[in-house]
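pipeline/complex-builder :: batch 7 item 3
reading input block
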Amino acid sequence: KNQVEQSPQSLIILEGKNCTLQCNYTVSPFSNLRWYKQDTGRGPVSLTIMTFSENTKSNGRYTATLDADTKQSSLHITASQLSDSASYICVVSVFTGGGNKLTFGTGTQLKVEL
Amino acid sequence: DVKVTQSSRYLVKRTGEKVFLECVQDMDHENMFWYRQDPGLGLRLIYFSYDVKMKEKGDIPEGYSVSREKKERFSLILESASTNQTSMYLCASSLWTNSGNTIYFGEGSWLTVV
């Protein structure tokens, strides 16, 4: 069964600190991996998309890495801000006969405090 | 900016009622999706559509139907709402491509069935 597992489930950090969120997946055949940010009560917003040939991609203070060999990805947040408080969802896409199928992780809930 | 608009943010319906959730996107995307999001389960695909009048079942289609009469509009229908359909429903859209196309989400519709 294709799975996407994220860790930790939740995390509290102080404003200005860095943090790293993890995503391990077993889906196959791999197409691409996405990170989304979801504020409470809102829809997810795309942060990064990486194919198997890309091992790092940045979007401002967010940097995602991908190791397709070990099937692991991480999302690093630099100099955290209160507005970074949200759920971060890892999504892995697999090739199917009809296109790409997405498998969603359950998310890491990040809280940034003063 | 791409905009995916879900017409109802909060709904309360009675068991057995027919419920319509409407979604409109303004970027001429071929693909449209309906997901539900429940705590601890991640997003699960209900139905998707890759063209007008075309629809494909997702992972949890039971109890739901969809309609896509126009390219920009994708409706989710609960023929007879039940309490286990209380959830947050997310509509999404994307271009038709097998590469890393961004998927854009609406803000979500919170449905409570009593």
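note: Chain A touches chain B at residues 4, 31-32, 34, 36, 41-46, 49-51, 89, 93, 95, 98-100, 102, 104-107 (CB under 8 Å).
queue -> next item
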